[in-house]
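Re: that chain you flagged

S.,

Sorry for the slow reply, it's been a week of failed gels. I finally had a moment to sit down with the sequence you sent. For the record, here it is as I used it:
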Amino acid sequence: MTGLELLAEPVAEGIASFAVNLLPRVGSQAISEVQNLFFNASRKYVHTYRKRHCQLKVLGMREPVDLAQVYTGIKFLDEDDILGFESTQALEKQYRRTRFRSCIGRRNRNEKRSGIDVANEKQYLMVLGGPGAGKSTFLRKLGLEALRTFHHEQAVYHHRKIPVLLELKRFEADDIDIAMLIAEEFGNCGFPAPEEFVQQALRQGKLLILLDGLDEVPTENLDNVICTIQDFVDRYDQNRFVGSCRTAAYHGGFTRFSDVGMADFDNDQIEQFISNWFSSERDTEGAISKKCWKTLQEEKNRAAKELAHTPLLLTFLCLVYDRSQRFPANRSNLYQRALRILLEEWAAEKRINRDEIYEGLSIELEESLLSEIAYAGFESDQLFFSRRELTAQIKDFLASNLNVPKTLNGEAVLQAIEVQQGILVERAEDAYSFSHLTLQEYLTAQCLADNRHWNKVISNYVTDRRWREVLLLTPGLLTGKQGANHFLKTLKQRANQCLSSIKLQHLVQWATAATAGSPGSFNPAAKRVSAIYLALALNRELNRELARSHILERARALALTIDPAHAHIIDINLARTLTLNHALTRAHEYDLDISRAIARGITLTKRFARLNILATINCLELLKHLQTLKSSIPSQETSEYQKQIFQARVLKLWFNALGISPDDWQLSSADVQALADYFYICELMIRCKQMAVRVSPEIWTGIETQMVTVPTEHRALAETEWVGLNVLQIPLAQQA
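Prediction finished late last night. Pasting the structure tokens below so you have them in one place:
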């Protein structure tokens, strides 16, 4: 419901009394007759506007939806924020500082402003934005609010003007008569003497003229259309005018107009849009909007949420969620569909006249071109490109393809991609980027899959967080029988390279031995990771290196990923382990009560006893001796040296129980980082397996079984050196 249905009669009455004063008499008809004619015509005009412009049906919707049902108030960027003049280097620096994925390079120095507020303020307004940004929807909403001014109690638009919406794609003729086109809008609804009526309305400034889609005007007629509109505005400058155009296609020409850019949706607007979309009685009862918003907030859907900042793609996400109450596990497929919307479906629905250039540039070929541009940018750690760089890449691509028509040229292809699809956009003067980082990541993954570049990427960039999403998307594109298998085996080989250090091999061997045969129902690899986590967390000498490498965070992430069924209980116990480390450290540094460390140690011991992760640890004996130590805690008056001695006794109890000696287990900075990288790659490998379309059970079983064990290629050397590991044999009783 637009809200106009209930107000149709009073709105029509308001327009009729407003309009009838423009024409004192029509022929010999009485004033009452004329008023009745205007009322009926106004009522039909309101009904026609609502039917033509207030119902949306895009992206294959089965049924149209009312504009007001899904409309979310838009925000504009000020003129200075539409295009900046920074260098590509400055834009790169800004992006890396802000990490705002969906609005790369936009300065946004000023506050965003409500679209209606700006339209109230500006008599001549040009609304700029990318494909699917909501330009046309805003113009239609503004017209709806203008109609409501004739029933003032509901008005948010402050100017009583009759709205007229003209789609500029209709401006194909050389001799365009805008006044006649406006008269047709009124004449079709039965307004008496429509030409004369429109002339009077224009002279008296009674119209709000909405000029939608300047970018949809055929290229050969664009200059003529701009001149015609400019002359029309100059002639009837008492009216209000709002136009729309894709940013990339806009080259000015309207001296009176203020240019404003559509801002991306922020989180509040996304949530509001979702709430509006799922507003039926059935959706409300099932709290579908809240569930959809919550699902979109999940970490696994982080990149999908990036798409939601564009209204068109948010509509697409709502349609997807509406069908299955979730977002697809295969994000690659989701992004591919979103890309196709920008490349093909949206243009088709908008009925844009495709340039001749597209006759030789198929969708598949264009995807391949864009994927190579995306990959080249990622490999060179470049998010912004100059026009010269892009044109050169396009030319190289065209020259390397035998089946590409020779008539195509790089400049024309770039312009077509930029203007009609909005995938590559100009962020600043001569500084281009992909409209969404998600799309660049997906296209880069597509290039990896198509050209088997993933071997090189895994070898060189696997631990670079920039490439994480790309690598996660790649298995979903490897649909052949062996594609994902080879990909996962390459990841495994790269992970094994991290365990080349003898000391790391000993650590892994110890974890394997310490957990082997333990009765706990956890995944064996999760047990081994938990054991290593415990050993590292208790080694205070490594605190700085542990923090620097994020190794404990990565070990935790791996353990939870390996064994999601027991993730909660594992997480709790790993957290307890870390708090014990903090307690032992801070008790000395901040003179805190050492009893906290003992109490946490006791709690942790009880938890590990219940988990049954470690086969070699005698938790009951350790617990007994911790209880003994609790009764001999030094007082606050005890010297710092004696406190340190006591803390060392606590740690020795733990290390002896675990069967390890920190004195002989001194990991270098390189060792710590290598182990952190190993955990990260293993966790990534599991995520990639989950994203893959097809994986051999035999291949994955082999990978999973060998995870967090000494690699086969290192095993002989590790076993030779195993005797070098000093395992404490001192009875716990003596330590206590």
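What I noticed first: The longest strand covers residues 240-246.

Talk soon,
D.
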